[in-house]
Specification:
This protein is α+β, with helices and mostly antiparallel strands and 102 residues long. The protein contains 3 helices and 4 strands.
Length: 102
């Protein structure tokens, strides 16, 4: 992903409860829905004992709109009641980036 700077990264770090319980399907649905939102720039995700999902956004307003989206609110409630033991959200301003690609 090569995005114009600055932009924002929302870092969602979590530990899960046992079993899938519909989590995988909802995670895919939320990724598709987020990608359709104004201001969405991309997403990266990895899961082992700790899961980390980073979504990228053009503005704080776009992040707030996504957080308040009705389907996302439903997923957040299911996450608290069914899927997560713990989570933390960090919102960061990305001013600079670099990468390596062979």
């Amino acid at each position: 992903m090569n995005m114009a700077k600055p932009y924002y990264a929302v870092i969602f770090t979590s530990t899960r409860t046992e079993g899938d319980n519909g989590y995988g399907e909802m995670a895919q649905r939320m990724e598709v829905l987020a990608s359709e939102q104004p201001g969405f720039l991309g997403v990266e995700s990895a899961r082992n004992e700790v899961g980390i999902t980073i979504s990228y956004w053009e503005s704080l307003a776009a992040i707030a709109d996504w957080k308040a989206h009705a389907d996302h609110l439903f997923a957040q409630q299911k996450g608290i009641s069914n899927w997560y033991q713990w989570y933390k959200v960090r919102i960061c301003l990305v001013e600079r980036e670099y990468d390596f690609n062979k």
